[in-house]
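Figure 3 (text version): structure tokens given as input.
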């Protein structure tokens, strides 16, 4: 009996070792990115980072196009991608489904007109100047949100703004629409399809730097509390050896990623863990049922 137990133990150890070896012998690395702006643009901007990762892991690295935040969450949970760039709320949604999903890096943001320098950004409520000069004038108007899984484009407005105003968004505004991304919300606001929009401050800064808006194009009628910036996360099935190589590639020698960082209005990449995003869990628990 003792010999049988020993044999079973050896077989189990061999099986686990074989699984780890199989995981680390994958032939490509797949990355998912939430569609915070046009996916083709995001894929082009990430090329310097992809080149760095290809050299680090010595295998093919590609971005898997995504049409929604939810699709990227599903991909990182199912193992359809190995790394994902998620928003804080979408990371927590993924982490609820698979606690092995691990945040490991985030961008350090440059100072912008709408966003302070550092590791935090804010949700903004922007309104057309001819439409509203204060929040009272927005009651009964049309507002855009981005994606149901967006932090600054859905979660924070639905909880923090609604709590401060003492009413749900659907009661404060006559019409609440989801556009699919922050850029689509900004475009809808510019085109007059909505009267106001909740967007990430970093996306407003990007529109300003690309001359799509001026500083006085919109009134900023509300700002959220600071939100820790978007994490890059590992899937639960990625092996430790690859995680270590990826960490080193992304968190060292930032000068080699200058083009990528410039495209994101960032000055560097900093290590993160679940700790930075845990406070957002309370907001998610308080999110009203729509």
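Below: residues designed for each position.
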């Amino acid at each position: 009996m003792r010999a049988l137990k020993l044999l079973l133990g050896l077989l189990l150890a061999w099986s686990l070792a074989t699984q780890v070896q199989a995981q680390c012998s994958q032939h490509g690395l797949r990355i998912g990115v939430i569609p915070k702006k046009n996916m083709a643009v995001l894929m082009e901007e990430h090329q310097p980072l992809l080149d760095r990762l290809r050299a680090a892991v010595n295998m093919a690295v590609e971005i898997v196009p995504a049409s929604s935040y939810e699709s990227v969450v599903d991909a990182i949970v199912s193992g359809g991608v190995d790394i994902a760039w998620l928003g804080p709320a979408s990371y927590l949604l993924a982490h609820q489904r698979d606690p092995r999903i691990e945040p490991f890096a985030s961008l350090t943001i440059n100072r912008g007109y709408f966003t302070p320098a550092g590791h935090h950004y804010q949700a903004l409520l922007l309104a057309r100047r001819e439409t509203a000069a204060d929040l009272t004038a927005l009651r009964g108007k049309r507002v855009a949100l981005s994606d149901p899984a967006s932090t600054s484009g859905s979660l924070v407005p639905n909880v923090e703004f609604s709590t401060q105003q003492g009413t749900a968004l659907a009661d404060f505004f006559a019409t609440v629409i989801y556009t699919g991304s922050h850029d689509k919300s900004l475009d809808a606001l510019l085109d007059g399809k909505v009267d106001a929009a909740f967007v990430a401050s970093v996306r407003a800064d990007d529109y300003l730097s690309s001359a799509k808006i001026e500083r006085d194009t919109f009134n900023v009628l509300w700002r959220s509390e600071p939100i820790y910036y978007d994490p890059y996360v590992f899937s639960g099935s990625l092996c430790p050896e690859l995680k270590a190589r990826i960490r080193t590639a992304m968190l060292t020698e930032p000068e080699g990623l200058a083009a990528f960082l410039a495209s994101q209005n960032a000055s560097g990449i900093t290590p993160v863990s679940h700790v930075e995003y845990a406070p957002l869990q309370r907001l998610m628990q308080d999110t009203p049922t729509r």
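Residues 1-22 have pLDDT under 50 and may be disordered.
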